Amino acid sequence: MTMRFRAAVLRSYTGRFTVEEVVLKEGPAEGEILVRIAGCGMCRTDLAVRRSAGRSPLPAVLGHEGAGVVAETGGPGTGLRVGDHVVLSFDSCGHCRNCLGAVPAYCDSFASLNLFGGRETDAARFTDAAGAELAPRWFGQSSFAEYALVSARNAVRVDPALPVELLGPLGCGFLTGAGAVLNAFRAGPGDTVAVFGAGAVGLAAVMAATAAGATTVAVDRHARRLAFAERFGAIPLQVTSSGLPDRVRRLTDGGAQYAVDTTGSVQLINDALRSLRPTGHLGLVARLHTALSLEPGTLDRGRRISHICEGDAVPSLLIPRLTALWQAGRFPFDQLIRTYPLADVNEAERDSDLGCVVKPVLVP
């Protein structure tokens, strides 16, 4: 089987995406599925390829928040059927100690499978129209495209009554923020949560904390994002030059039990630690690009800090939980989405960079 379809290809770390014809030379092998993409979220991790130039191979088709309909399967062992609606999430090996321990986000092969080239056998199967190889399966997907070839392991079946074209961000960005609160913290009624950075991941954390019954404070510089946070049940707090930890502590009756940093800012990380009550826990979900220097006293009295990858999630468990919360009106992620035709991928990136949109979704 040879398939030709459109995809957004990134050929240069500093260049624009080009929407062009690509070629898939083989159909799904055992354990794989071919998905017709209905929508794919644009995540900061996709755009971070430019910042870490040279680490992730190009040319490539990016996109790792895909959702769509199964068009073909690699046999009955996938557990999926043609016509199933699925959300795609990150790739994992399935057999290392962490995968077997139900923490696939910490898979021994996470970096190689998701960021640095995927499985070597994939490369020759995916080319441009001229036959030049494209880097295989970004995050196991490469879903800035009309079709994606994925492992059935990172596909989660969802209710066909749901708007599948909007569900892709549940596979990474929204999963990360919500999972930090629901999985890593296990926050519940009576807890206090401070969220630093009210972008897509931070607002997902806000929605999850509100759904869990926690008192939530959202910290950001941008009034528009804080307006979303307030709509979703958080107390909005605008960043100013001084006194931020004191203000958070006043709003959380002596300090937050949990805090999420989505910014990667060393100053805000220190502020978040100082905002915690004794025994409080700060979770970092953003990638750090500078050394993290902690100010004296920030980890006193039982406070701790950890990195949380992909919301500590087992996607097949968390994604259905989030869709059920959405159906109950308690996780209104769709309010953060703006859709763009795949052909407008560069406009979606521009609007994301400018902060004009919280979560762009590309629709082939």
TrEMBL record:
Chain ranges of the Alcohol dehydrogenase-like C-terminal domain: 200-311
Gene3D superfamilies per UniProt: Medium-chain alcohol dehydrogenases, catalytic domain, NAD(P)-binding Rossmann-like Domain
Cofactor: Zn(2+)
The entry's keywords: Metal-binding, Oxidoreductase, Plasmid, Zinc
Keyword Transmembrane helix: no
InterPro entries in UniProt: ADH-like_C, ADH-like_N, GroES-like_sf, NAD(P)-bd_dom_sf
CDD domains assigned to the protein according to its UniProt record, in alphabetical order: benzyl_alcohol_DH
UniProt KW Zinc keyword: yes
Family: Belongs to the zinc-containing alcohol dehydrogenase family.
Name the UniProt record assigns to this protein: Aryl-alcohol dehydrogenase
Species this chain originates from: Streptantibioticus cattleyicolor (strain ATCC 35852 / DSM 46488 / JCM 4925 / NBRC 14057 / NRRL 8057) (Streptomyces cattleya)
